[in-house]
Amino acid sequence: MVVDAGHGGHDPGAHGPTGVREKDVTLAISRRLVDLLNAEPGMRGVLTRSDDRFLGLRQRMERARSANANLFISIHADAAFNRSAQGSTVYVLSEKAASDEASRRLAARENAALIGGVELGDKDPVLASVLMDLSQNASISSSIAVGDAILGRMVGLGRLHRRTVQQAPFMVLKSPDVPSVLIETAYISNPADEQDLRSPAHQDALARAILDGARNYFAANPPGNPVSRPPTTVAAAGSFRERAARPALARQHVIRRGDTLSGVASLYRVSLSSLRAANRLRSDIVWVGQRLRIPREDT
Ligand SMILES: [Zn+2]
Predict the structure, then answer these.
(1) How remote is the CA of residue 68 from the centroid of ligand 1, in Å?
(2) Contact indicator for 38, 82 with CB cutoff of 8 Å
(3) For residue 35, with 0-12 CB atoms within 10 Å meaning exposed, 13-18 middle and 19 or more buried, which class applies?
(4) Is the pLDDT higher at 249 or at 253?
(5) Which residue has the higher pLDDT, 259 or 130?
(6) How far away, in angstroms, is 104 Cα from ligand 1 center?
(7) Residue 292: what pLDDT?
(8) What is d(CA 163, CA 148) in angstroms, rounded to the nearest whole number?
(9) Residue 95: is its pLDDT beyond 90?
(10) What count of Cα atoms within 13 Å lies in the side-chain half-sphere of residue 31?
């Protein structure tokens, strides 16, 4: 897991009413989180920066890919002109930004290297775009699931600015094959939040909440399981409607927010009972990130 301390060097980020700087609190929280991760059996934390230096957004993403991370967490603090704004917000990439980024990368042939373990360089453009889409959809689903798990632990710390995972076009979240979450830990522009952010006890509590959320996510989606590691096979390719329209590829569906079992059944034109049977489901409850096998027999 790669932990990214936001800002640094000549970019101080936001600052609070008494002068606390975002780049300093993000580094303190990130260091604490990495120490906790490295004390945890089976987990490993790597910092994008361990001191007060500037890193570009793409350099930060590149650290996650070169470390072969299965999770990227970028730590920030929010600021607003309205000083009463306070609390934490968790962001993942928006689908629109993901597809814009995919188009840009494809246009630039930037990822002739690897996307989700698949070499794109020699693929025809349609297949390359399907593979890119697949990887980003899986990453966003996984990112939302991680974000939900982290919010579930941060709620115990007190203030949340937003109670659900938000989606936004943040550049640093655009790795197509690494689930990525950006956490605005608090509003540094709010006097009470600023004091919390500078307090080692609160920094520790934030780091522990993020660790616990990540641990809960990995317990439900063990690394190596394709839900936590975006899929690498064509069998799982494509956006949801696109996949349904391609029977040869329509083997699996990853549940996203708002999906229902009956909705998935009708999307793929299979009966609810065969979908239940194929996945050995005893109820129609589904959860974000859940991977459903789509039966073929009654298409
Ligand atoms: Zn920031």
Answers:
(1) 24
(2) no
(3) middle
(4) 253
(5) 259
(6) 24
(7) 86
(8) 9
(9) no
(10) 11
Query: Could you tell me the distance, in angstroms and rounded to a whole number, from the CA of residue 180 to the centre of ligand 1?
Result: 15
User: How far apart are the CA of 76 and the centre of ligand 1, in A?
Assistant: 4
Dist. CA 113 → ligand 1 center (Å): 30
Cα(292) to ligand 1 centroid in Å equals: 37
Find the mean pLDDT for residues 202-220. 95
105-140 burial, b if ≥16 CB within 10 A, otherwise e? Answer: bbeeeebeeebbebebeebeeeebbbbbbbbbbbbb
Q: What sections of the chain are H helices per DSSP?
A: 22-38, 57-66, 95-108, 125-154, 191-198, 200-220, 240-244, 261-267, 272-278
Give residue 12 CA to ligand 1 midpoint distance, Å.
9
Length of the chain counted residue by residue = 299
Using CA atoms, how far apart are residues 22 and 76, in angstroms rounded to an integer?
7
What separation in Å is there between the alpha carbon of 25 and the centre of ligand 1?
Answer: 10
Please give the average per-residue pLDDT across 82-101, as a whole number.
89
Is the model's pLDDT at 243 over the cut of 60?
no
* Residue-wise pLDDT tens digits, 56-79: 999 999 999 889 899 999 999 999
Q: What DSSP string describes 153-186?
A: HHGGGS-BS-SS-EEE--GGG--TTS-EEEEEEE
> Strand 252-254 to strand 291-293: parallel, antiparallel, or no bridges (unpaired)?
antiparallel
Per-residue model confidence (pLDDT) at position 289? 78
pTM: 0.71
DSSP codes of every residue in 86-98:
-SBEEEEE-HHHH
How far, in Å, from the CA of 72 to the mean position of ligand 1?
A: 15
Radius of gyration of the chain from its Cα atoms, rounded to whole angstroms: 20
- Give residue 100 CA to ligand 1 midpoint distance, Å: 22
Average pLDDT over residues 115-137: 64
